[in-house]
Design brief:
By secondary structure, the protein is an alpha+beta fold. About 40% of the residues lie in helices and about 25% in strands. The protein has a six-stranded antiparallel beta sheet with strand order 2-3-10-5-8-11. The protein has a five-stranded antiparallel beta sheet with strand order 1-4-9-6-7, with no helix packed on it.
Length: about 300
C-alpha cells in the first residue's frame, strides 16, 4: 500500500506490496517525508475499499475522524462479522496480522504505524498487541488526534516532536496491553543529567536532536526520559528545544544577522517557519526586530 501515504503493507505469504487495494483513497496528509524514525502518521478519506489477505509491516492504529460510524465486514475463521467503529474511536491491527475486509461508503480516518523495531528500542521489549475495535482509551485518542492534526495542517518537518509523540503512543499501548515499561533505573532526571542534556541542546540548537540520543546521554530509557524531562521542566524536550532556538534566533537577529541565515543555523525548516513561531513567542516578526536593531 502506498498511494503516496508511506504506509507499508503487503499480501500475506507473498511479500508483494498491497498497493491496489486503496486506489480510492484521498490523502490529506502524511509524515512520510518528515524523518520520523519508525513512526508514520497518515490522514485520508477512503471510499468503498476492499482488502484481501493484507497485513501491515508495523502496528497500525486507525482513528475514525469522521462524523459517521465506520462499518466494515471482516472475514474470520468463524465467518463474516460486521465491525462498527464510532466517530472518535480507533481500531488496532497488529504488525503482520492478516486481514481480509471490505467497506462501503466514505470513511474519514487518521492513523499511525509503529515499527516493531521502534517499540523494542523505546521499551526494551515487544508489546503483545492484539486486534482491537471500538478502542476508546481517552489518552490514546487525544494523542492520535494531535498527530493527525499535525500532519494535515502543518508542512513543517520536526523529528523531535514526532519522536516525542511516538514514544507517548508506545508507552500508552504498553499500558493498554499490559506491557508497561520496565524501570531500568530508579529516580528521575537529576541535576547532573539535566545539565548534560540541556548543554547538548544549547551547544547546537540547529542539530536534529532525538529523544533516543538525549535519553542515552541521561542514561535513561526514552520513555522514562521524556516523562522525567517534562516533570522537571514543565514542557516536552521538543518545546524546550524550540525555546532555545527562538532565543538564539532573537540574539542573532538583534545583531542584524540575515533572517535566512538565522533560520538555517537555528534549525528551522525555512524563514516562514521561523517567522510564525517567532511572532507567536515574542509578538514581533524577525523583520521587525532586525529593523529595530538597525544596521550592523
Amino acid at each position: 500500500m502506498d498511494v503516496g501515504t508511506g504506509l507499508h503493507a503487503h499480501r500475506s505469504g507473498k511479500g508483494e506490496l498491497a498497493d491496489d487495494e486503496w486506489t480510492h483513497t484521498r490523502l490529506f496528509g502524511t509524515s512520510a517525508h518528515r524523518g520520523w524514525d519508525g513512526f508514520l502518521a497518515v490522514a485520508g478519506q477512503s471510499r468503498s475499499w476492499d482488502a484481501t489477505t493484507v497485513c501491515f509491516a508495523g502496528h497500525w492504529i486507525s482513528l475514525n475522524t469522521g462524523r459517521r460510524p465506520h462499518v466494515v465486514e471482516r472475514e474470520t475463521a468463524r465467518g463474516t462479522i460486521t465491525i462498527t467503529t464510532a466517530p472518535g474511536r480507533y481500531c488496532i491491527v497488529p504488525a503482520d496480522y492478516t486481514v481480509t475486509a471490505r467497506a462501503v461508503g466514505v470513511h474519514h480516518w487518521g492513523g499511525v504505524q509503529l515499527s516493531r523495531d521502534k517499540v523494542l528500542r523505546v521499551l526494551g521489549r515487544p508489546i503483545p498487541v492484539h486486534e482491537q475495535y471500538e478502542g476508546c482509551d481517552p489518552k490514546l485518542v487525544a494523542m492520535l488526534k494531535l498527530v493527525v492534526s499535525e500532519v494535515v495542517q502543518s508542512d513543517t518537518p520536526d523529528p523531535l516532536w514526532g519522536e516525542g509523540m511516538c514514544i507517548g503512543i508506545i508507552a500508552r499501548l504498553a499500558t493498554i496491553f499490559g506491557a508497561s515499561e520496565p524501570t531500568a533505573r530508579v529516580g528521575g532526571l537529576d541535576a547532573r543529567r539535566m545539565r548534560l542534556v540541556v548543554e547538548r541542546m544549547a551547544d547546537d540548537v540547529g542539530a536534529r536532536h532525538t529523544i533516543v540520543d538525549l535519553a542515552k546521554l541521561a542514561d535513561l530509557s526514552p520513555a522514562h526520559f521524556a516523562r522525567a524531562f517534562k516533570q522537571e521542566t514543565g514542557v516536552t524536550p521538543h518545546t524546550y528545544l524550540m525555546r532555545l532556538r527562538l532565543e538564539r534566533a532573537r540574539a542573532s537577529l538583534a545583531a542584524s544577522a540575515s533572517i535566512r541565515d538565522v533560520a538555517a543555523e537555528c534549525g528551522f525548516a525555512d524563514q516562514a517557519h521561523l517567522s510564525r513561531l517567532f511572532k507567536r513567542r515574542f509578538g514581533v516578526t524577525p523583520g521587525e526586530l532586525r529593523r529595530r536593531a538597525g544596521p550592523a
